[in-house]
């Protein structure tokens, strides 16, 4: 029962991801046709540099006029793999206006202004799918949106940036410092020449916004996500983590508050116990841990980036969107009915590991403990180490609101006996 | 834009899983309605014992006449959580004939006769969803059927039975023997009074048949799955595994042959390296490893059974099927277009760990090595241990077809100097 008119697909962008999408569409055309129920045809490819050699792509499909391509009107599905906010946003909304459905890998745009895209899709009765935008090849958006649609998700916590995981894993394994590990990641192609988006947590924050929105059926924007990069994690932090039976990961954490009335989303480095499944995620792999009321604790693991893994996710979406076109149906759209407020970082409740440089004299511990107590932060363990008049105090707290911890640290800095706050790290996953 | 007429759902079975489905449908009715776009109403519950107290379920919904319930004609979705082949099969096909879509958790029926169900669904333009049939709460069927629909899956390898994983984990951790660990599992409620279906691998084999069918787009029946239970795994096997840096798991393995022209599906205990992600799956958790051409290596992890996790999967399906009803559409049906043959176990290629009890005299190793060579099975490592005229030989092979290994073992048994074959175990995941 195969339809004969092929579905027309236009690619916007033909770089790392787009070229792999085009390649697989060609080499696996028969499988795709069988799974969709109709052949798919690559109808146009928009790029910036028309003269670049693009293996396997007929020259007549190449155009630099992406706008004309999305306005052609005969395109069934647009695959947007340009990246960035503009012109991607305008191209996508224009595509909807001209009757196409859209598959995108664009986390930056979705985190910044997903609502505009969802609304345009809804208004024109078309699909917007974006499995590839979070955690590359790992099926995550679909499980959250569909498999867990009958459940209540309370927490999503994951390693969603491969570059930073590679760097932290290298630091953990070799004892290297941050810049040495970054150099290694750059040399091996795991980090870009300008690694800011990765190491400062911008990339992970975009993914956290997308995940929180889907998990909690509410709108979460990039600005709602607390973000701390991992450039200040030191070899000493790893040594402290080891002493606690932990390692350090850059985590994206989306949580429903205990009272269920608000949510939070944040990205920062954190200590997690070695026994936690996320602790053993090595190299550039990604993994996302999901806690749901009925399902319990789930984990999804796999390659978070790379041309071919990301293309796998794009093509899975392409099959679904094409099937929907044939059925004249659409998949699930935006689900934001809960309209839960996003609380600021100060309201996040977690544990902390704080290293202080203090004067090596009697009474310091008592002073420090008093400051914690005054701010309502309860201490779990303290370790003192001293030599030559210099000493360090390592304090691990019980669960406390982030605002209380910040207040504590501010007050600690004012103590004469505290020479410096060497590091503050959250402790998660216990 | 909420429809006012509720969608009517009938439950067939209200045991461990069914009672949780009913509970969540009641407690989370508003969320389900928002996500579906229409309220869902529990319209009838078929059970065997009508007089049993069933908390939260109005008595007038209870019936012992499941057939009449599926024939009522006003039911939108039937949730089948009775289990077993009959009457479940007839009830499901009758439900399709009367216009209902079906959500089922019934691995036994799907593995035995999935084709009949798919055909009935297709003929009547209705949905058949069964996420809960494999690995309980873990989203797996949907990722395989949909997220990876644009990729080529080459292998699915997983721990899909929680009872046996609990027993093997206990043996590994405590050094206990099989029956001691089974007793512990029974006492803790992880094993049923009659554990045959679990420990002999029947449950895992049903899941392997379902996974292989979906992964390879071909029909794989229960009879096509090679099956070996784990009742003969000993503490000595675990000791050998440890010496190799391995542990032992009961694995379901579905593979595409190297030439791509056939597939295999099998269930048996196997050694896997401690570094493999499946090695650290503890207690009754399940996890499934998927290797796809473009996506690479993915893993899905979570609770494989239990009333509430399984209900989570059922309800995710219920939301999807209800949405499809509202859209007058259907989700993906059976995909068996590749029609690949299922090869017998003899054609599976893997590695082996063989322990032999041999006479402690010169020349034995040479004799044994000759037998391996004659059968074309290449040896990787040999370890000899001897005392008091008794000796043991542990041979680890390179990859070889299962038939060649069987021939080798048969010939070894005929050697005068071989007193017995203490154990043969496959080595996977390298
Ligand atoms: N790479 C990954 O591993 C990965 C993983 C997950 C998600 N993603 C997402 O996938 C998207 C694409 O990433 P990528 O790595 O493939 O990027 P890329 O290699 O930089 O490719 C971008 C493509 O877009 C084209 N392009 C740029 N501006 C354009 C314009 N104004 N009009 C038409 N075409 C234009 C470029 O043309 P030229 O070829 O002529 O330069 C290039 O083909 C991004 O949203 C990214 O976040 C990537
Ligand atoms: N339990 C799990 O963790 C789990 C996990 C994954 C999948 N599953 C699958 O889910 C299904 C249900 O499992 P379960 O553990 O919930 O089983 P269960 O506790 O034994 O419940 C079976 C239910 O079916 C009812 N029933 C039996 N025969 C019937 C008949 N002829 N007509 C009407 N009702 C009938 C029983 O009625 P009474 O209540 O009157 O006895 C009972 O309510 C099975 O296919 C199983 O393989 C279970």
Automatic annotation (TrEMBL), chains A, B:
Q: Which cofactor does it need?
A: a metal cation
Domain of life, source organism: Bacteria
User: Which CDD domains does the protein's record reference?
Assistant: ACT_HSDH-Hom
Q: Which reaction does it catalyse?
A: L-homoserine + NADP(+) = L-aspartate 4-semialdehyde + NADPH + H(+); L-homoserine + NAD(+) = L-aspartate 4-semialdehyde + NADH + H(+)
The family database entries (Gene3D superfamilies) matched by this protein are listed as: 3.30.70.260, Dihydrodipicolinate Reductase, domain 2 (3.30.360.10), NAD(P)-binding Rossmann-like Domain (3.40.50.720)
Q: What does this protein do?
A: Catalyzes the conversion of L-aspartate-beta-semialdehyde (L-Asa) to L-homoserine (L-Hse), the third step in the biosynthesis of threonine and methionine from aspartate.
Name of this protein: Homoserine dehydrogenase
Q: Which organism is it from?
A: Streptomyces solicathayae
